Amino acid sequence: MASKIAVVTGANKGLGFSIVKGLCLKFDGVIYLTARDEKRGREAVDKLKALGLHPEFHLLDVSDENSIKDFADYIKTKHGGLDVLVNNAGILESNVYPTYDAAKRNIDINYRSLLSIEKWLYPLLRDGARVVNVSSACGHLSNLKNKKWLEILQKKDLTTKEINEFVEEYLESIRNGTFNKDDFVDEGKHAEHRVSKMAMTALTMVQQRKYQDKNISINAVHPGHVKTDMANGKGDLEADTAAQTILYLILDASPNLKGVFMWHDKKIVDWYDYEGDYFCKDIW
């Protein structure tokens, strides 16, 4: 029988590193620590090997579709399929009101990369596979106040095309100077991050519906405010602690848990509760 295969993106440090470490301790199979920088990725693998753990390294830049395709070809040739995929790679821009280029970079990495990953890696998902998309509190619908998009994103038959239109309309508002802070909570601070993570959470549900006929679980998670470089020294959860919710979804959760948004305390939140108190607050 073929070995089970797990892949974690953006895993050379922070939360991704902790997820790989946790999988090495509990997952019976081959674990790939992937990163866009080969030197940093291999150094991360060496750190885990020093602890007696044995992940594999593979280069993967999620912002480069060719890199995703090359990695998919490698997995298909070497292993034939994939059992666990954690989409963890992500960035946060330093400016609370970013330029168009910075906003586009955030969305390309945090959201649009998932479309390329779906194209190349999802066909390799085996029966019983589990996918976890690492979202955040910024990925909850309560971050949004624009009535038009609230109505569209709450649709039970939402499509990827509509999510893309939401993202593109936001980016166009930055490009042409019509961005409205009142379309978001918290005076529109880091709207690019909120948009990218809301798009990711919405895509999770669209993808689960799309793959409903296959025995695959696709869920999103808010891991908490994690003490990582992205949090600029802030945060209230150690990465190893935050990784536990993701490990739970991979290893222990019921296979019937599909298309949900799980909070860091393992509670399932209602993504459609746009009047809820789930939005991200001063996490930068």
From TrEMBL:
It holds the Pfam family adh_short. It comes from the Eukaryota. Keywords: NADP, Oxidoreductase. One of its GO terms (molecular function) is carbonyl reductase (NADPH) activity. Its EC number is 1.1.1.184. It is an enzyme of class 1 (oxidoreductase). InterPro entries: CBR1-like, NAD(P)-bd_dom_sf, SDR_fam. Belongs to the short-chain dehydrogenases/reductases (SDR) family. PANTHER family: CARBONYL REDUCTASE (NADPH), CARBONYL REDUCTASE 1-RELATED. This is carbonyl reductase (NADPH). The gene is LOC106116177.
